[in-house]
Amino acid sequence: MNVNRILVQQRLLMLREYILQLSQLARTGEQQFCQDNIKSAAAESYLRRALEVVFDIGRHILAKSGFADLSMEYKSIARGLAQQGIVSEELGEKLIQMAGYRNRMVHLYHQVTEEELLHIISENLGDFRAFSDSIQKFVGEMLQD
After folding, report:
1. First and final CA of the chain: distance in angstroms?
2. Half-sphere exposure of residue 67: CA atoms within 13 angstroms, side-chain side
């Protein structure tokens, strides 16, 4: 298995930083968040980056493990991670939803509201942490093999 552990760890550090920034933005009151274009734009950017990191890591692990090619779609990456036991089935389902939301942010960006962003960063950052924990565990098990 040729998974680049350094690359994965670097991406996980990026994810941790994005989660930290999103956590801070989530503490903004709803009225201030929705009226401050800079805060909502920052949240959108950090959220999109966090999603990209998740799927970059997933694609890399699956491709280097021989389970997928680099052209996999985001939802296929989520399914592949769950099928290979790298993440739980429950987290795999959440990753599928995250992939759909990532596509919405990129292609239907004009429909994404500030209230929606605030709700997501207030309620769903734990999914990113669960992903990070699962990947850390996977990398740790790789070192033991």
Report:
1. 10
2. 19
Q: Is 145 helix (H, G, I), strand (E, B) or coil?
A: coil
Q: Residue 57, Cβ neighbours under 10 Å: how many?
A: 27
Cβ neighbors of 114 (< 8 A, separation 6 or more) are 33, 34, 40
Backbone angles phi, psi at 79, to 5 degrees: -60, -45
Using alpha carbons, list the distances in angstroms from residue 100 to 16, 78, 91, 96: 22, 11, 14, 6
Closest by CA position to 7, among listed 53, 50, 46, 52: 53
Q: Give residue 104's identity as a one-letter amino acid code.
A: R
* H runs (alpha helix) in 36-124: 37-64, 74-83, 89-107, 114-123
| pLDDT at site 144 | 74
Task: For residue range 25-41, list pLDDT tens digits in order.
Answer: 999 999 999 999 999 99
Cβ of 34: how many Cβ atoms within 10 Å? Answer: 16
- Residue 65 is inside which H or E element, if any? none
Specify whether the CB–CB gap between 100 and 79 falls below 8 A. Answer: no
User: What share of the chain in percent tops pLDDT 70?
Assistant: 96
